[in-house]
Amino acid sequence: MAEATTLARLLQRNARDLRDRPAIREKDRGIWQTWTWGQYHDQVREFALGLAALGFKRGERLSVIGDNRPRLYWAQVAAQCLGGVPVPVYQDSIAKELAFVWNHAECAVIVAEDQEQVDKVLGLRDQLPALRLVVYDDPRGLLRYKHDWLRSYQDVQELGRSFATRHSTYFEAEIEKGKPEDVAIICYTSGTTGNPKGVMLTHANAIGIAEAFRKADDIRPEDDALAYLPMAWAGDAAYTLFLSLVVGFCANCPESPETVQRDLRELGPTTVLAPPRIWENMLTAVQVKAADAPALKRWVFERFRAVAERAEILRADGKPIPLGLRLARMLGNVLVYTPIRDQLGLRRARWALTGGAPLGPDTFRFFRSIGVNLKQVYGSTETTGLVSLQPSAEANPTTAGRPCPGIEVKIADRGEVLVRGPVIFKGYLKNEEATREVIDPDGWFRTGDAGFMDPRGHLVIIDRAKDVGALRDGTPFAPQFIENKLKFSPYVREAVAFGHERDFVTAMVAIDLNTVGNWAERRGIPYTSYMDLSQKPEVCGLIREEIRKGNETLPAATQIRRFLLLTKDLEADDAEMTRTRKVRRRFVSEKYAAVIDAFYSGGHTVELEASITYEDGRTATLKSRVRVEDVGPEMTARV
Question: Hey, is 72 helix, strand or coil?
């Protein structure tokens, strides 16, 4: 067999060398079902041959939409085996977003998880001229759908088995035609400044990132990973598809998004990848449980949490940990830290990664302090998801780690991070001009992030270059840093800070409905909706106090002076956030211009229009008058 220079050849290698080892699992109706690498290969082969029987050609695009399911992963690999290109999309995208991606990529085939996703395609069918086949995985509710272009996954595989009897070597021959420079997948960017761009990643990119990761960290064929992140995110493609095929570890698909935490605890993965929002949610859950515990348990938790954080700060600074603190931490490990790791499903994890956006230092230190080997990773869709990674012994909340082997990083004159290496993408689909803007003639990719290299050779990311600014007096202003301080609070779900070229810093805050709702219920405060709860005077006082706590760790010049509680959460459907939960700052600044004006003109009320977008594209508007609050004179400057 030819050298494994494509993902399809890696599949063949795994089917030969790891044939009976677990490759992928799925939890269905409470039971984990396992497929070995041999079975994985056979499932992919049958579906690929079924696609071939239905006319799928080299270079065509196949999209998948739905939750993490083995058949959706197999469909992507099947397309790659035939020389086609998978295009995963976010399963919670609204109609307009789906229509843009499917049309821009000219998808010929869509593989949908269930009736909900098929109905989305049905609603857009007339807008998708390139589409000729839709395949569904879960048949429930679809038996009466009669369309000549709609087929079940099993039907396609049956066609494949029949096709194999007449073309016994077709599958292997198509794999042999594949080249490392062929496009392996198209992942669309989050689109923080406009329509998303289709990032073309090659087989060489995919294998390059896996090899770089394997050299930088401890990854083993016997590892278990949870495949729960959106398949459209480059991080999931890099981890669940590329790294799994290169290393041979087992990916595990949870039963549903609602059961992820329970399935995580049941599985106990050995490696974990999660964006900051997941870690923040986990911390919030721990804080809420601690707050609801009896007084003695609450005291024990707070006591040993403080012990762990003191020890972690000393470790990160390279200072010795006193004997008394070590003994207290050992006792805390028995009473507090191990039970928390077990509840979160992290007891077996050798390492855990966070990436996609900055994680607040307080959240990072919490998990490190309770024994989770949490490390920061930096990358982007255009770098196949990876640039740098923290070594376990050097993990700290201020850096993104060392550049991985084979990947070069340098800092441009104006502080922008530039990257070069085998992970740099081939180009943007149908957009050569945009490609030339970000990749120079020497192969350096302009990330758009501002950063620097510290004395230890670690990459430090400050913020998006276009978001880093300064207050009117020249004080540097990095909004994400301030927002992460606020989001450490379990009562704050999202925050947007303002201050560039202004006299002081202000913030809009979206409360966490569940946490604040529980807080209100314990105090007998009635409410009817998110809007009603967010505008309660008691809730305003709660968030004011949380802002004061955050201000205590900020320099005086960048402390938050004024704030406003939003009447709804920031939503991707309303274009305020990307699907990966990044703030679309330009759009938010324009949409909430009246709020910003009130912040800095001294106003105390502002008229808010909350636009709500439904999945089918319909919109509704809720109007309300909201108070602009002052944090108050209790602000302190301890930094």
Answer: helix
